[in-house]
Task: inverse folding
């Protein structure tokens, strides 16, 4: 998933990145969280969709930072470092929320 996002970003297909990022996050929840969490995350996502014009993935200044966060999360998970993965994820999600509030 992340490799596809990196390719799309490199080829300027940023319009695909928002949905791919949501899928990335939901896969992590499905793999690493308790069984109920994936359904809950999907419910929140479906109840509070991000308007297309608020997508940080359409902002070129944000794309690299967001992909770097995803890479950091994956690297930490691959290394078995749940604490670092959690910290990066929290920072990443908070950054996205702050970005959207100021749009």
Result:
């Amino acid at each position: 998933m992340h490799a596809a996002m990196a390719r799309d970003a490199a080829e300027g297909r940023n319009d695909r990145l928002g949905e791919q990022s949501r899928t990335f996050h939901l896969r992590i929840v499905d793999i690493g969280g308790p069984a109920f969490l994936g359904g809950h995350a999907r419910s929140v996502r479906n109840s509070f969709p991000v308007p297309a014009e608020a997508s940080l993935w359409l902002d070129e200044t944000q794309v690299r930072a967001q992909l770097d966060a995803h890479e950091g999360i994956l690297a930490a998970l691959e290394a078995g470092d749940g604490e670092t993965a959690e910290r990066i994820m929290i920072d990443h999600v908070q950054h996205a929320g702050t970005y959207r509030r100021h749009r």
